[in-house]
Amino acid sequence: xxxxxxxxFRRSRDRILAAFVIxxxxxxxxxxxxxxxxxxxxxxxxxxxFILGIVFLFFAVFSYTRNLKSxxxxxxxxxxxxxxxxxxxxxxxxxxxxxxxxxxHLGLYVLLYSADFLPGNFWPVAARSVLQCTWSAGxxxxxxxxxxxxxxxxxxxxxxxxxxxxLFAIENGVAYLEKVLFNNYFIGIDDxxxxxxxxxxxxxxxxxxxxxxxxxxxLVFEAGVAVILVYAMTLLIKKRTDI
Length: 243
Known about the structure:
- The protein has eight helices and two strands.
- It has helices at residues 2-33, 38-69, 71-74, 80-113, 122-153, 159-182, 187-191, 216-242; strands at residues 195-198, 208-211.
- Strands 1-2 form a two-stranded antiparallel ribbon.
- Helix 4 (80-113) packs across helix 8 (216-242), helix 5 crosses helix 6 and helix 5 packs parallel to helix 8.
């Protein structure tokens, strides 16, 4: 599977590097041209990282759809499940590289401006938020991949519309069930930034973040959905290969 990940990365390497360069140019431009406060500037930097994370999501989806269209790729003697998991792992690796870049960026801010602009309890809350966002991003990617697989498996025209319809149905269906069962939308999206900020006037050390927490059973439910999606995609791809 590592070879599949390396192959997909090499095929999109120029686009990925270009995205990082464009992000770096924007980040530097915001840093040197912004006349706002440090807190507001950090918010702008965060939005840029978030947008690049979405761009990487599309890279992973396009890589997966190209593999579905490629007949020689389906004949490669590897387990079918690797075809499903390799785009997901590549996406998580890209998010990890983005996270490392953001940590270096934050370290430079701390060196230049000190860490006074960071609220208390920032690191544990940020770490949990990042983990939950990464998980939810992976789940959303699996839903998109499943919708693409279903559309490619049907001998019908309008595959783009079929993909959108399947994605709409499964995303809203899972979200509805999770809302009814656990009062969550998606555990990562709904809870990643659910925390309370204690006012500086109420604490001698300044601001403090207090994490609200989440329902662990919602995570188990989403993990079950992810397993079902991977299993269903594996069966559909095997059927296409046999045909």
